[in-house]
Amino acid sequence: MRSLPPGFRFGAATAAYQIEGAAQEDGRGDSIWDTFCRLPGVIENGDTGDVACDHYHRWREDLDLMAALGLESYRFSISWPRVQPDGAGALNPAGVRFYRELVEGLLERGIEPAATLYHWDLPQPLQDAGGWANRDTAQRFADYAQHMARELGDLVTTWITHNEPWVVTFPGHAQGRFAPGVRDWPTALAVGHHLLLSHGLAVPALPGSVAITLNLTQVYPAAPGEEEAARLYDGHLNRWFLDPVLRGSYPEDLLEHYARRVGPVDAIRDGDLEVIARPIGFLGVNYYFPTRVRADGEDRPLGVALEPGPPPLTAMGWEVEPDGLYDLLVRLDRDYGVPIAITENGAAFDDPPVRNGSVEDPERVAYLDGHIDAVARAIADGVDVRRYFAWSLMDNFEWTRGYSKRFGIVHVDYESQRRTVKRSGEWYRDLIARTRETRHATP
After folding, report:
1. Phi, psi (degrees; rounded to nearest 5) at 321
2. DSSP state for residue 132 in the 8-state scheme
3. pLDDT, tens digit, for every residue of 135-179?
4. 8 A C-beta contact, residue 345 and residue 389
5. H/E element holding 26?
6. I want to staple 290 with a disulfide (CB 3.0 to 4.6 A). Which of 117, 170, 324, 374 is the partner?
7. Pair 190, 130: CB distance under 8 Å
């Protein structure tokens, strides 16, 4: 294990809809994922987040588990419909109380709270009024951020506005694979802009260090001669969100491409990009696998196809390639020069059953080991990476895959809700302990 800077911290991450359950309790309203999960055939096995990991009732037990693992930081998300069921107007006191007690419990255990305001669970009443395609939703989000700053800002000093706006934009509104299930590219481009605008509007309200988390990948040509396809896909997935936030402009090549294939992004108004580019404290990076791309004239509107990577693959079919994370971090430092937190990194594998109080998951241990080493190599080469959050603390509701895929370093028996630390969790605990010892021993 290479040395890490004194301020570096290890943690784990979760998201409200994936773990909390209690979907109809204590005044929580419906989100677009509650609505989406009720549609026939969209979620494997008809699963929902109604119960999930029952974290809403078991949070104290879960915080004790985090402390036992030695976590130094915990990234969680606030359920907007739990604290403000209509997405506007009065707050729900029970929902606010839940998060305040959660944060107090983290601090009592010496764990840094990192709060994400939006991890995809838009209040359904806002969707009924047009959702993220409606510019007014950006202002509603800014108001919500202001409420959370007032209610939790004396305790929380690390904030993330959005998780993976690319997913909300394109799988959610261009392809219809994720909530709210819309299939319209012009709508998707407006949604993406409004998400970024809402981020910029929220930044001044939040005390401490503020970030946005983007799902980013290192894009490689699938073969010689496919460099143009790789450049286009890099623009679609990476630069379309990086450039507005960190440079105050959309990439010209993608603006031209979308104008030809989809139509102009009419949602952009004068002054928007200045708001979107308000300074942030760090960039959240979610990385899972690299992407290999070739041209495909049949694909519309992008005109590219993704090639599967070589084995080993995860249970999601994703390539395991830690060098992709190293290359991405070096590129981000070179092109944008912003402090970075790895806000998600992990893998689903077909874990065996619990035996003798543990779960043997050597593939996940190898995945985490390789990717954390990639982070340490990037830091050694001058990249400013300050946090690493393993995805995920525990097995949970994996969106359209339901409960069929397990990403956790802690196993969850969904019938009994029993938690069992996997071998990867034990490995991570020991790594954190060794790193802490080294940190304290360094003068």
Report:
1. -150, 90
2. G
3. 999 999 999 999 999 999 999 999 999 999 999 999 999 999 999
4. yes
5. none
6. 324
7. no
Strands 304-307 and 291-295: antiparallel
**What is the b/e burial string over 365-391, where b = at least 16 CB atoms within 10 angstroms of the residue's CB?**
bbbbbebbebbbbbbeeebbbbbbbbb
Give the whole-angstrom CA distance, residue 253 versus residue 267.
18
Confidence grade of residue 443 (pLDDT, cut at 50, 70, 90)? low
For position 442, what pLDDT does the model report? 59
Q: Which residue, chain included where needed, has tokens 């830091």?
A: 379
pTM > 0.85 = yes
> Which of 92, 197, 76 lies closest to 147 in space, CA to CA?
92
Give the 3-state secondary structure of 273-333.
Answer: HHHHCCCCCEEEEECCCCEEEEECCCCCCCCEEEECCCCCECCCCCECCHHHHHHHHHHHH
Distance CA 236, CA 234 (A): 5
The tokens describing 75, both together, are 């990234």
Q: Which residues are catalytic?
A: 164, 344
The pairing of strands 410-413 and 418-421 is antiparallel
Contact (Cβ atoms closer than 8 angstroms) between residue 163 and residue 120:
yes
